[in-house]
Amino acid sequence: MRYTRYNYKKTKKNSGLAKTILSFLAMSVFVVIVGIMLANIIIHFLPLNDASETQANSEAVNQSENIDNSEAENAADNSEDVQASSAVDNSTEGQENVQGSINTSFMAIQCGYFANEDNAKEAYNKIANGYGAFIYNESDKFKVLAGVYTTAEGQSIMDTLTSSGIDCAKVSFDLNSNDKVQSQIAGIYNGYLNILDTAFKDDVKSVDTSDFKSWVKELDVISEGDKNDVLTELKNHVNDMAAEIKKEDVANEMQYLYKILLSFS
Question: Which residues contact 244 (CB under 8 A, 6 or more apart)?
């Protein structure tokens, strides 16, 4: 029987080399595995993060666009509200003038009645600078008036005059709101007074009358009724008004309006 003889030294040397090779292979395999894992991480996770950021950016853009659109819509709505409000105001003004639901109570503020013109001028000088004052000559007598106003505004001016030591009295005029002629006169009168009141303010150089003149021209034509002649004359006067009313024009215009009111005394 034969036995195989082993050279233990030789075998031992070969075993060390084998171990080295195995270690190298194991290390290579480990590196490859780790590389594959890292590659998978890079491939699978990084794109997801990019997609998430892209989606987030997209959502942010969409949200921004929605906000911009919402603000634009709100701005448009506000613009429409303003236009609608203006239309309502214009419609209401016209309706009030036609139906007579506007102010129809007016007053003149009289600060003296004199037979001597010099005395009238002296009284006039006390109020000339603060009000639309004028002197009205009536049957060789002279009335000093601090202007004509709506009743509400006139009472406030009377209180101021009284507190300044100036004697005055009010002369009231009430137009009939149920009468078409008088209602239209009242409507024109209110607009007229508003122009004069604005023109008399310290910081106003002049007031454009074109809109007022156009508005009066478009009012309904009333061809009959009591005081229709007064209405016609008032409309003609407005039509012939200057393009601008200045502070120095107020007194003469106030005097004209006072004459109109005298028609209803």
Answer: 206, 207, 208, 209
Calpha distance 94→98 (Å, rounded) = 6
Sheet of 169-174: strands edge to edge?
Answer: 134-138, 141-150, 105-114, 169-174
Residue written as tokens 């406030």?
A: 156
Beta-bridged to residue 108, according to DSSP, are 148, 171
Between residues 55 and 244, the one the model is more confident about: 244
- Give the domains, in start order, of the chain with CATH numbers: 105-262 (3.30.70.1070)
The letter for the amino acid at 251 is: A
- Helix, coil or strand: residue 109: strand
pTM comes to 0.62
E strand or H helix that includes residue 124:
helix 117-127
List pLDDT tens digits, range 225-256: 999 999 999 999 999 999 999 999 999 999 99
Residue 252: partners with Cβ closer than 8 Å, 6 or more residues away: 134
Using CA atoms, how far apart are residues 125 and 166, in angstroms rounded to an integer? 12
Phi-psi region of 142 (alpha: psi -120 to 50; beta: other; left: phi over 0): beta
